[in-house]
Amino acid sequence: MSLHTDASPGLQAVPAEAESVPDGAQAHFEQLLAEDSRIEPRDWMPEAYRKTLVRQISQHAHSEIIGMQPEANWITRAPSLKRKSILMAKVQDEAGHGLYLYSAAETLGTPREKMTEDLIAGKARYSSIFNYPTLSWADMGAIGWLVDGAAICNQVPLCRASYGPYGRAMVRVCKEESFHQRQGFEILLELANGTGAQRGMAQDAINRWYAPSLMMFGPPDDDSPNSKQSMAWNIKRFSNDELRSRFVGMIVEQVKVLGLTLPDDSIRFNEDKQQWEHGPLDWNEFKEVLAGRGPCNAQRLARRREAHEDGAWVREAAAAYAAKQAAAQKTEVA
Ligand code: BYC
Q: pTM of the entire structure?
Protein backbone atom coordinates (compact mmCIF):
# COMPACT_ATOMS: atom_id res chain seq x y z
CA MET A 1 0.00 0.00 0.00
CA SER A 2 1.59 3.27 -1.04
CA LEU A 3 0.39 6.21 1.01
CA HIS A 4 2.01 8.76 -1.24
CA THR A 5 -0.43 10.19 -3.69
CA ASP A 6 -0.42 13.26 -5.90
CA ALA A 7 -3.19 14.76 -3.79
CA SER A 8 -1.15 14.74 -0.60
CA PRO A 9 2.57 14.86 -1.15
CA GLY A 10 4.32 14.20 2.15
CA LEU A 11 7.39 15.88 3.51
CA GLN A 12 9.36 12.68 3.09
CA ALA A 13 12.84 12.56 4.57
CA VAL A 14 15.38 12.58 1.78
CA PRO A 15 19.09 12.20 2.52
CA ALA A 16 20.99 15.34 1.53
CA GLU A 17 23.15 14.82 -1.52
CA ALA A 18 26.37 16.51 -0.58
CA GLU A 19 26.34 16.90 3.15
CA SER A 20 29.62 18.11 4.62
CA VAL A 21 30.22 16.32 7.89
CA PRO A 22 32.59 17.88 10.45
CA ASP A 23 35.30 15.53 11.79
CA GLY A 24 33.95 13.10 14.37
CA ALA A 25 30.42 14.50 14.15
CA GLN A 26 28.79 11.34 12.83
CA ALA A 27 30.52 9.23 15.48
CA HIS A 28 29.41 11.64 18.22
CA PHE A 29 25.81 11.51 16.94
CA GLU A 30 25.88 7.72 16.92
CA GLN A 31 27.42 7.63 20.38
CA LEU A 32 24.62 9.83 21.75
CA LEU A 33 22.06 7.46 20.26
CA ALA A 34 23.88 4.39 21.60
CA GLU A 35 23.90 5.92 25.10
CA ASP A 36 20.23 6.79 24.71
CA SER A 37 21.21 10.41 25.30
CA ARG A 38 19.61 13.44 23.75
CA ILE A 39 20.49 15.26 20.57
CA GLU A 40 20.17 19.02 21.09
CA PRO A 41 19.73 21.78 18.48
CA ARG A 42 23.42 22.75 18.72
CA ASP A 43 24.59 19.20 17.92
CA TRP A 44 25.45 18.07 14.43
CA MET A 45 22.85 15.68 13.05
CA PRO A 46 22.39 13.90 9.70
CA GLU A 47 20.19 15.84 7.31
CA ALA A 48 17.79 12.88 7.02
CA TYR A 49 17.34 12.80 10.83
CA ARG A 50 16.57 16.53 10.80
CA LYS A 51 14.05 16.14 7.96
CA THR A 52 12.33 13.21 9.60
CA LEU A 53 11.93 15.20 12.79
CA VAL A 54 10.59 18.27 10.99
CA ARG A 55 8.14 16.01 9.15
CA GLN A 56 6.87 14.25 12.25
CA ILE A 57 6.86 17.24 14.61
CA SER A 58 5.20 19.59 12.10
CA GLN A 59 2.56 16.97 11.26
CA HIS A 60 1.95 16.60 14.95
CA ALA A 61 1.67 20.38 15.44
CA HIS A 62 -0.76 20.66 12.52
CA SER A 63 -2.84 17.84 14.04
CA GLU A 64 -3.18 19.74 17.29
CA ILE A 65 -4.26 22.91 15.49
CA ILE A 66 -6.69 21.22 13.08
CA GLY A 67 -7.83 19.02 15.98
CA MET A 68 -9.34 22.09 17.63
CA GLN A 69 -12.04 22.28 14.96
CA PRO A 70 -14.16 19.17 15.58
CA GLU A 71 -14.37 20.01 19.28
CA ALA A 72 -14.81 23.77 18.86
CA ASN A 73 -17.93 22.75 16.91
CA TRP A 74 -19.55 21.83 20.25
CA ILE A 75 -18.47 24.73 22.46
CA THR A 76 -21.65 26.71 21.78
CA ARG A 77 -23.82 23.62 22.24
CA ALA A 78 -22.27 22.07 25.35
CA PRO A 79 -25.09 20.98 27.66
CA SER A 80 -24.07 23.17 30.64
CA LEU A 81 -21.86 26.09 31.56
CA LYS A 82 -19.51 23.69 33.37
CA ARG A 83 -19.18 21.45 30.29
CA LYS A 84 -18.67 24.49 28.12
CA SER A 85 -15.81 25.85 30.24
CA ILE A 86 -14.11 22.44 30.42
CA LEU A 87 -14.36 22.02 26.64
CA MET A 88 -13.03 25.52 26.05
CA ALA A 89 -10.05 24.78 28.30
CA LYS A 90 -9.40 21.57 26.40
CA VAL A 91 -9.52 23.23 22.99
CA GLN A 92 -7.21 25.95 24.29
CA ASP A 93 -4.78 23.26 25.50
CA GLU A 94 -4.64 21.89 21.95
CA ALA A 95 -3.58 25.32 20.68
CA GLY A 96 -0.84 25.31 23.30
CA HIS A 97 0.33 21.86 22.18
CA GLY A 98 0.52 23.14 18.62
CA LEU A 99 2.65 26.05 19.77
CA TYR A 100 5.12 23.92 21.76
CA LEU A 101 5.46 21.62 18.78
CA TYR A 102 5.93 24.37 16.18
CA SER A 103 8.60 25.83 18.49
CA ALA A 104 10.33 22.45 18.76
CA ALA A 105 10.29 22.11 14.96
CA GLU A 106 11.67 25.64 14.56
CA THR A 107 14.78 24.63 16.54
CA LEU A 108 15.56 22.40 13.53
CA GLY A 109 15.70 25.40 11.23
CA THR A 110 12.27 25.39 9.60
CA PRO A 111 10.33 28.61 10.23
CA ARG A 112 6.78 28.33 11.48
CA GLU A 113 5.58 30.44 8.52
CA LYS A 114 6.84 27.75 6.15
CA MET A 115 5.09 24.98 8.09
CA THR A 116 1.85 26.97 8.13
CA GLU A 117 2.12 27.68 4.40
CA ASP A 118 2.53 23.96 3.70
CA LEU A 119 -0.51 23.17 5.82
CA ILE A 120 -2.86 25.69 4.26
CA ALA A 121 -1.63 24.82 0.76
CA GLY A 122 -2.68 21.22 1.46
CA LYS A 123 0.93 19.99 1.14
CA ALA A 124 1.41 18.84 4.73
CA ARG A 125 -0.25 16.01 6.58
CA TYR A 126 -2.16 16.11 9.84
CA SER A 127 -3.77 13.25 11.71
CA SER A 128 -6.43 11.32 9.77
CA ILE A 129 -8.70 11.34 12.82
CA PHE A 130 -9.64 15.01 12.48
CA ASN A 131 -11.29 14.48 9.12
CA TYR A 132 -14.34 12.84 10.71
CA PRO A 133 -17.41 14.84 11.76
CA THR A 134 -18.60 15.38 15.34
CA LEU A 135 -22.31 14.58 15.09
CA SER A 136 -23.47 14.62 18.71
CA TRP A 137 -22.42 15.78 22.17
CA ALA A 138 -21.36 12.19 22.91
CA ASP A 139 -18.62 12.64 20.31
CA MET A 140 -16.90 14.98 22.78
CA GLY A 141 -16.78 12.03 25.16
CA ALA A 142 -15.60 9.58 22.50
CA ILE A 143 -12.89 11.96 21.26
CA GLY A 144 -11.62 12.51 24.79
CA TRP A 145 -11.65 8.83 25.70
CA LEU A 146 -10.59 7.21 22.41
CA VAL A 147 -8.72 9.90 20.45
CA ASP A 148 -6.87 11.41 23.41
CA GLY A 149 -6.43 7.89 24.80
CA ALA A 150 -4.76 6.81 21.55
CA ALA A 151 -2.72 10.02 21.60
CA ILE A 152 -1.44 9.19 25.10
CA CYS A 153 -0.45 5.64 24.08
CA ASN A 154 1.42 7.02 21.09
CA GLN A 155 2.92 10.04 22.80
CA VAL A 156 4.13 8.80 26.19
CA PRO A 157 7.03 6.94 24.47
CA LEU A 158 7.77 10.13 22.51
CA CYS A 159 8.71 11.82 25.81
CA ARG A 160 11.89 9.75 25.41
CA ALA A 161 12.44 10.76 21.77
CA SER A 162 16.11 11.31 21.07
CA TYR A 163 15.62 14.93 20.00
CA GLY A 164 15.63 17.00 23.22
CA PRO A 165 13.15 19.78 22.39
CA TYR A 166 10.61 17.26 21.06
CA GLY A 167 10.84 14.93 24.04
CA ARG A 168 10.55 17.81 26.51
CA ALA A 169 7.53 19.29 24.71
CA MET A 170 5.86 15.89 24.83
CA VAL A 171 6.11 15.68 28.64
CA ARG A 172 3.79 18.62 29.09
CA VAL A 173 1.52 17.58 26.23
CA CYS A 174 1.05 14.14 27.80
CA LYS A 175 0.13 15.57 31.20
CA GLU A 176 -2.60 17.62 29.60
CA GLU A 177 -3.76 14.73 27.43
CA SER A 178 -4.37 12.67 30.58
CA PHE A 179 -6.82 15.30 31.79
CA HIS A 180 -8.46 15.32 28.35
CA GLN A 181 -8.91 11.58 28.36
CA ARG A 182 -10.52 11.56 31.77
CA GLN A 183 -12.93 14.34 30.89
CA GLY A 184 -13.98 12.38 27.79
CA PHE A 185 -14.46 9.19 29.76
CA GLU A 186 -16.51 11.06 32.34
CA ILE A 187 -18.82 12.49 29.66
CA LEU A 188 -19.43 8.97 28.34
CA LEU A 189 -19.92 7.56 31.84
CA GLU A 190 -22.58 10.12 32.59
CA LEU A 191 -24.36 9.46 29.30
CA ALA A 192 -24.07 5.70 29.80
CA ASN A 193 -25.82 6.07 33.17
CA GLY A 194 -28.46 8.39 31.77
CA THR A 195 -31.64 7.78 29.76
CA GLY A 196 -31.90 5.13 27.06
CA ALA A 197 -31.46 7.83 24.43
CA GLN A 198 -28.29 9.15 26.11
CA ARG A 199 -26.89 5.65 26.39
CA GLY A 200 -27.65 5.08 22.71
CA MET A 201 -25.90 8.32 21.82
CA ALA A 202 -22.77 7.25 23.74
CA GLN A 203 -22.74 3.81 22.07
CA ASP A 204 -23.20 5.36 18.63
CA ALA A 205 -20.26 7.72 19.22
CA ILE A 206 -18.03 4.82 20.30
CA ASN A 207 -19.11 2.82 17.24
CA ARG A 208 -18.09 5.65 14.92
CA TRP A 209 -14.80 6.65 16.59
CA TYR A 210 -13.41 3.18 17.38
CA ALA A 211 -11.87 2.28 13.99
CA PRO A 212 -10.61 5.79 13.11
CA SER A 213 -8.90 5.99 16.52
CA LEU A 214 -7.12 2.67 15.90
CA MET A 215 -5.94 4.02 12.54
CA MET A 216 -4.37 7.03 14.26
CA PHE A 217 -1.37 4.81 15.04
CA GLY A 218 -0.53 4.71 11.36
CA PRO A 219 -0.45 1.92 8.77
CA PRO A 220 0.35 -1.69 9.73
CA ASP A 221 4.06 -2.24 10.36
CA ASP A 222 4.56 -3.93 6.99
CA ASP A 223 3.29 -0.79 5.26
CA SER A 224 5.04 1.77 7.44
CA PRO A 225 7.99 3.08 5.43
CA ASN A 226 9.31 5.39 8.16
CA SER A 227 9.13 3.21 11.27
CA LYS A 228 12.35 1.24 10.95
CA GLN A 229 14.62 4.26 10.55
CA SER A 230 12.72 6.32 13.12
CA MET A 231 13.12 3.50 15.64
CA ALA A 232 16.84 3.18 14.84
CA TRP A 233 17.15 6.90 15.60
CA ASN A 234 15.24 6.53 18.91
CA ILE A 235 12.51 8.86 17.70
CA LYS A 236 9.83 6.19 17.71
CA ARG A 237 10.26 3.63 20.49
CA PHE A 238 7.53 1.19 19.46
CA SER A 239 6.04 0.21 16.13
CA ASN A 240 2.58 1.33 14.98
CA ASP A 241 1.11 -2.15 15.54
CA GLU A 242 2.67 -2.53 18.99
CA LEU A 243 1.10 0.72 20.15
CA ARG A 244 -2.25 -0.08 18.52
CA SER A 245 -2.31 -3.42 20.30
CA ARG A 246 -1.56 -1.79 23.67
CA PHE A 247 -4.35 0.69 23.12
CA VAL A 248 -6.87 -2.07 22.34
CA GLY A 249 -5.87 -3.82 25.58
CA MET A 250 -6.50 -0.63 27.50
CA ILE A 251 -9.91 0.26 26.06
CA VAL A 252 -11.27 -3.27 26.11
CA GLU A 253 -11.17 -3.10 29.91
CA GLN A 254 -12.29 0.52 30.23
CA VAL A 255 -15.40 0.00 28.09
CA LYS A 256 -16.64 -2.50 30.67
CA VAL A 257 -16.75 0.28 33.27
CA LEU A 258 -18.97 2.23 30.90
CA GLY A 259 -21.23 -0.79 30.46
CA LEU A 260 -20.99 -0.24 26.70
CA THR A 261 -19.27 -2.25 23.95
CA LEU A 262 -16.61 -1.85 21.29
CA PRO A 263 -17.83 -2.54 17.75
CA ASP A 264 -15.35 -5.38 17.26
CA ASP A 265 -16.04 -9.02 18.10
CA SER A 266 -12.54 -10.13 17.20
CA ILE A 267 -10.69 -8.53 20.09
CA ARG A 268 -8.67 -11.15 21.97
CA PHE A 269 -5.38 -11.52 23.78
CA ASN A 270 -2.92 -13.66 21.85
CA GLU A 271 -1.04 -15.57 24.55
CA ASP A 272 1.70 -16.73 22.19
CA LYS A 273 2.49 -13.25 20.92
CA GLN A 274 1.56 -11.63 24.24
CA GLN A 275 -0.43 -8.96 22.46
CA TRP A 276 -3.98 -7.82 21.88
CA GLU A 277 -5.52 -8.49 18.49
CA HIS A 278 -8.44 -6.72 16.87
CA GLY A 279 -10.64 -7.15 13.81
CA PRO A 280 -9.65 -5.93 10.33
CA LEU A 281 -9.50 -2.19 9.70
CA ASP A 282 -10.46 -0.53 6.43
CA TRP A 283 -7.06 0.66 5.24
CA ASN A 284 -8.57 1.87 1.97
CA GLU A 285 -10.61 4.34 3.96
CA PHE A 286 -7.40 5.45 5.72
CA LYS A 287 -5.71 5.91 2.37
CA GLU A 288 -8.62 7.96 1.07
CA VAL A 289 -8.53 10.23 4.13
CA LEU A 290 -4.77 10.72 3.72
CA ALA A 291 -5.31 11.57 0.05
CA GLY A 292 -7.60 14.42 1.10
CA ARG A 293 -10.86 12.60 0.38
CA GLY A 294 -12.14 11.97 3.92
CA PRO A 295 -15.53 13.23 5.11
CA CYS A 296 -14.25 16.61 6.38
CA ASN A 297 -10.82 17.20 4.77
CA ALA A 298 -11.97 20.07 2.55
CA GLN A 299 -13.88 21.76 5.35
CA ARG A 300 -11.01 21.49 7.85
CA LEU A 301 -8.49 23.03 5.47
CA ALA A 302 -10.88 25.76 4.33
CA ARG A 303 -11.48 26.75 7.97
CA ARG A 304 -7.77 26.77 8.72
CA ARG A 305 -7.07 28.93 5.68
CA GLU A 306 -9.87 31.32 6.62
CA ALA A 307 -8.58 31.63 10.20
CA HIS A 308 -5.07 32.29 8.91
CA GLU A 309 -6.31 35.05 6.59
CA ASP A 310 -8.51 36.58 9.29
CA GLY A 311 -5.54 36.63 11.65
CA ALA A 312 -3.26 38.54 9.26
CA TRP A 313 -3.87 41.85 11.04
CA VAL A 314 -2.85 40.32 14.39
CA ARG A 315 0.45 39.09 12.92
CA GLU A 316 1.06 42.48 11.29
CA ALA A 317 0.29 44.34 14.54
CA ALA A 318 2.57 42.02 16.54
CA ALA A 319 5.41 42.47 14.04
CA ALA A 320 4.98 46.27 14.05
CA TYR A 321 5.01 46.28 17.86
CA ALA A 322 8.12 44.11 18.00
CA ALA A 323 9.88 46.42 15.50
CA LYS A 324 8.94 49.45 17.61
CA GLN A 325 10.26 47.79 20.78
CA ALA A 326 13.50 46.82 19.04
CA ALA A 327 13.97 50.39 17.74
CA ALA A 328 13.32 51.83 21.21
CA GLN A 329 15.87 49.44 22.74
CA LYS A 330 18.43 50.43 20.13
CA THR A 331 17.95 54.13 20.94
CA GLU A 332 18.29 53.40 24.66
CA VAL A 333 21.57 51.53 24.14
CA ALA A 334 22.91 54.33 21.93
N1 BYC B 1 -2.86 10.38 9.88
O2 BYC B 1 5.67 5.27 8.00
P3 BYC B 1 4.54 5.72 8.83
C4 BYC B 1 -3.78 14.41 18.93
C5 BYC B 1 1.36 8.96 7.38
S6 BYC B 1 -2.70 14.81 17.70
C7 BYC B 1 -2.24 10.99 8.85
O8 BYC B 1 4.05 4.78 9.86
P9 BYC B 1 5.52 7.57 10.84
C10 BYC B 1 -4.82 15.33 19.34
C11 BYC B 1 2.77 9.27 7.83
O12 BYC B 1 2.88 10.64 8.16
C13 BYC B 1 -2.41 13.27 16.90
N14 BYC B 1 -1.10 10.52 8.30
O15 BYC B 1 4.89 7.16 9.44
C16 BYC B 1 -4.86 16.63 18.91
C17 BYC B 1 3.56 8.87 6.61
O18 BYC B 1 3.43 9.85 5.59
P19 BYC B 1 4.68 10.79 5.16
C20 BYC B 1 -1.20 13.31 16.06
C21 BYC B 1 -0.57 9.40 8.85
O22 BYC B 1 5.72 9.02 10.85
C23 BYC B 1 -5.90 17.46 19.24
C24 BYC B 1 2.79 7.67 6.10
O25 BYC B 1 1.48 7.78 6.63
N26 BYC B 1 -0.15 12.58 16.71
O27 BYC B 1 -3.69 13.32 19.31
O28 BYC B 1 6.70 6.70 11.18
C29 BYC B 1 -6.96 16.96 20.02
C30 BYC B 1 3.41 6.35 6.50
O31 BYC B 1 3.31 6.13 7.91
C32 BYC B 1 -1.16 8.75 9.94
C33 BYC B 1 1.10 12.60 16.22
O34 BYC B 1 1.37 13.23 15.24
C35 BYC B 1 -2.34 9.28 10.45
N36 BYC B 1 -3.00 8.72 11.48
O37 BYC B 1 4.37 7.17 11.89
C38 BYC B 1 -6.93 15.67 20.47
C39 BYC B 1 2.10 11.80 17.03
N40 BYC B 1 -0.40 7.68 10.25
O41 BYC B 1 4.93 11.74 6.28
C42 BYC B 1 -5.86 14.83 20.15
C43 BYC B 1 3.47 11.87 16.45
C44 BYC B 1 0.61 7.65 9.37
O45 BYC B 1 5.85 9.87 4.96
N46 BYC B 1 3.59 11.14 15.24
N47 BYC B 1 0.50 8.68 8.52
O48 BYC B 1 4.19 11.48 3.93
C49 BYC B 1 3.85 9.81 15.16
O50 BYC B 1 3.96 9.13 16.16
C51 BYC B 1 4.04 9.21 13.82
O52 BYC B 1 4.28 10.25 12.89
C53 BYC B 1 2.84 8.35 13.32
C54 BYC B 1 3.15 7.85 11.91
C55 BYC B 1 2.66 7.16 14.25
C56 BYC B 1 1.55 9.16 13.27
A: 0.92
